[in-house]
Amino acid sequence: MAFSLGQPQLRLLCGALFASLLLIGQQASAQVTPESLIGDAVSDPDAARYSDIAEAIKRYENNDVLGAMNFLESAKSAEDRLPPANLMMAKMYFLTRQTAAGLQALERTASESPNDPEPYVLLADQAMTQSQAVQASALYDKAVELIKTYDKNPRRKRKLAIRAYAGRAAVLQRWQDWAAAEADLNAWIAEDPEAASAYNRLGLVLFMEGREKEGYDAFTKAKELNEKLPSPFVSAAAMYQRLANVPENSENKASYESKAKQSFERAYQADKNDETTLVSYSEWLIRSGDLAQAEKVLAAARTAQPTSHQIQLLSGVLAEMTGKPAEAEKFYNQTLALSPGNRDASNQLAQLLIKSDDEEVQARAEAVARLNARLNENNSDVNLTLAWVLRKRNKGAEANQAFTRGIRLGQPNADSTLLIAKLLVEQERKKDARAVLENALKNDQGIFVHRAEAEALLESLK
């Protein structure tokens, strides 16, 4: 298993980039409500005067699309502040996973209401979910242009502006156009000064522009607005480590790493009970090779946060890396007790148990790996672990199938790459094994639990 740096704080730090987008086309079995259809346009979508909206939803749920459309048109006729009828219909389609029909409804909206910005926002959101950044950028540009002149509903205009600026900033961040992203994030903040996620993303962008103090201030503001976000020191530490890993910053790598260390330590000293800080700092210590300090921090963390599955998981990883397999097994089992079906804990546990000479323990490894593969069938690492376990269980045909799936799914982490190398060695493909090991050992994207084993295997192949 390979953990990515500061996994918890980076998820929060980036705000999952797309969390600010509507993304209704991706909602599985979402409930269609008046709020979901007209909440951006009016403050009281459940009011009696919008009963036509409620009736349209009822008709739609009864498969009476024509009847639903009639009521949506009636509602729009009675209250022009509402979105176009076809756009509301498109939202219902998306919320019930009728994507093709939803796109057709959006196209009709764009044709019938050419000055309405929302079809372009929704189409851009759809493009982003499909990693079509160029299309999304053009659509957001069009939306922003129309928003500037839209004057039918100030509330709706503001909501659409927030979504468009947030969405376009996500594209620009992906393209590393930091200055343009900053402009859109500031435009978002101008519309919504209480948006913690906007300040959080602004902090990231400012760091990437080399404006560290301003970036830290943005993280501080984000934390003030949303106490669930990481400590500003943790967010800053994550950014310093990210900057250290940028090839262009190789001359300043040591300086950035030192700043990351200082920021993590300040975060830890400021609050030794905060789960995100404890997880992030422990993970960074393990990645940095300071296993003794990581052990001290995790021991205290287990007392401060006894129900944190992430702390138990990191404790298991550290125990495994320091040659304490019994402790590692205990911590992985505790992780699974706190987080049933946890993919990473199951993966690590299966790899650990299969090393045993005991038939019953090996059988348990197989059971764990098989269940994990059923729960995460499209994950490369899980399938490669299953392949290794089945290979050790002398179930070659099934092992080959799992191996093929794992390779096909692509992007295995460093520890899974080690499994690939070991399988290649068994096939006498030593040159290929060396190549994949060298690549894995260059990987600086996460904790490499079995790095020492990989280094030893590579040395034996020279």
UniProtKB/TrEMBL annotation:
Positions of transmembrane segments: none
InterPro entries recorded: TPR-like_helical_dom_sf, TPR_rpt
Repeat region (TPR), residues: 196-229
Extent of the signal sequence: 1-30
One Pfam family in the UniProt entry: TPR_16
Keyword terms, alphabetized: Membrane, Repeat, Signal, TPR repeat, Transmembrane, Transmembrane helix
Membrane topology field: Single-pass membrane protein
Main localization category: membrane
GO cellular component: membrane
Gene3D superfamilies according to UniProt: Tetratricopeptide repeat domain (1.25.40.10)
Subcellular location: Membrane
Tagged with keyword Transmembrane: yes
Family indicated by similarity: Belongs to the Tom70 family.
PANTHER family with a match to the protein in the record: MITOCHONDRIAL IMPORT RECEPTOR SUBUNIT TOM70
Protein name as it appears in the record: Tetratricopeptide repeat protein
